[in-house]
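Notes, p. 3: input format for complexes.
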Amino acid sequence: MRVQLVALYRALAARQMLIGSSGNVSARTDAGLLITPTGCEADTLSPDDLVPMDLDGGWQGPLRPSSEWALHAAIFCQDPKAQVIVHTHSDHATALSCLNRPLPAFHYNVAEFGGEDVRCAPYVTFGTPELARLAATAISGRTACLLANHGMICHGPSPAAALNSAIRLEALCRQYLLACAAGRPRLLSRAEMNDAIARYGSYGQQKDPPP
Ligand SMILES: [Zn+2]
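Output follows (211 residues plus zinc ion):
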């Protein structure tokens, strides 16, 4: 898992989704979680640098964990399906978060995050227990949320799934902002989104990739 988390972090960096060291990834472990250290750089990050933690903030090893560890811990505590978490300040998700708006049902692909929108948690200072609590509420029943004036966070059952989720959310935020720049996008109705959600459910059971 250490090697896979480093590969995940580098894949995010290669897609320009980590600005400097402003992003972090983690995986659930028996004892809590394994997370990238604070201030880490994709070029020099080594599997040995990842920090093992418990869910209350206790950590081991020479490097301090990401200052945003509590965000990750709150989601692991809340959702047993969350196995790998990605938090980034990727451009378009962050731009939308700065409008303090959710990603609405402008495209049926929004349903792949588990509902009719991707919510936006209210702004509070980074690294605080309050941000962790608000993010856990916003992501509840979903696999992603925006963090107002900050960025986004998403999870998946594996490193590959979490990477794919982060890439797809960033693309949808870009497409939504493009649509808003050109006009007022027609939002799908609740019935239309419910149909998409039901269809995603059957795709998941068949293990086919989403359309
Ligand atoms: Zn952040």
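Strands lie at 23-28, 33-35, 51-53, 84-88, 120-121, 144-147, 151-156.
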